[in-house]
Amino acid sequence: MTTSTAPAPAKAPRKAAAPGPDRARRRRLAQWGFVAPAVVFMLLFFGYPLVRNVVMSFQHYTPKTFFTGEAPFNGTDNWSSVFQDALFGKALWHTLLFTAGSLLGQFCVGLALAVFFNRRFPLGGVLRSLILLPWLVPMVVSGIVWRRILDQDTGVLNTFLDTLGLGGNTPWLTSPDMALLSVILVNIWIGIPFNMVILYGGLQEIPKELYEAAALDGASAWRTFRSVTLPMLKPVITVVLVLGFMSTVKILDLILALTDGGPADATQTLGTLTYQNSFVELDFGAGAVVGNVLILISAVFAVFYLRANRTEGK
């Protein structure tokens, strides 16, 4: 007689042990370790200067108190004197015109060049590289070169126009009516390569099948551009305009190299006004006020940009 033994019951699989408090604490510390350098960098190089600039706008600063750090508070006197100055309103208006004109010109020409170079043709890469040169040259150098080109008496542009019989005595930088337009045109020339490169990269990411489908539907070139290219390029256009606004609204070196804010304050912007108040007239409190206005304008623009992106993402 044989005896059979019943098989042993299978062991239930062990559940993964929940991470202990020490392990979770180490993970949080590791996460903060990666974030901490960026936070420290932002606080030191952005947070502290911003707070210091705001505080300075409520203090009476002279060259002596600037170095001793014992400037007394004067309430809103700096703000009142800046806002009551007629030059501030003029500089604010010039800043808006300069920023809007530069962005419009840079974007339109940059987009046209990006669409042009999106088609392959011989020496296309060489031409794209040459167009990048204005962007690679330091802005001060570009300003000095263009100041020579636009000189009323000895400038190359007036000499060329005179050769063509179109009049060669235009006061590009010395006339209050022409100076701001000339500065805008020079800034457009500098910013075209940046717009072209970013928009060209966006065009490369658009699927070719969309263009083929539009061609099969009989869409014209303009209809294809309006219904396919622009909608697909919208995120890239937003980035280009935001970065362009941030870099244009605070431009200082180009205007100083071309006109130094003149003639008759015709090219005075918030950036040049900040420089003039702080480092020419040594009124650091007024300079801080204008600087805070610039920061506020950029912050408002950034908030609208973030809200627009959040709305589109829903």
TrEMBL record:
Domain of life from the UniProt record: Bacteria
By sequence similarity, the record places it as follows: Belongs to the binding-protein-dependent transport system permease family.
Subcellular location as annotated: Cell membrane
- One Pfam family, short name: BPD_transp_1
Keyword entries, A-Z: Cell membrane, Membrane, Transmembrane, Transmembrane helix, Transport
List compositional bias (Low complexity) regions by residue number.
1-21
Keyword Metal-binding in the entry? The reply is no
CC per GO annotation: plasma membrane
Q: Its topology with respect to the membrane?
A: Multi-pass membrane protein
Q: What is its main location?
A: membrane
What GO biological process terms does the UniProt entry carry, in alphabetical order? transmembrane transport
Q: What is this protein called?
A: ABC transporter permease
Q: Which source organism does the UniProt entry give?
A: Streptomyces pilosus
Gene3D superfamilies linked to this entry: MetI-like
Q: Which residues cross the membrane?
A: 32-51, 91-117, 129-149, 178-200, 236-258, 284-306
**Residue ranges of domain ABC transmembrane type-1 in the record:** 92-305
Asked whether the UniProt record includes Transport among its keywords, one would answer yes
Q: Which residues form a coiled coil?
A: none
Region span, Disordered: 1-22
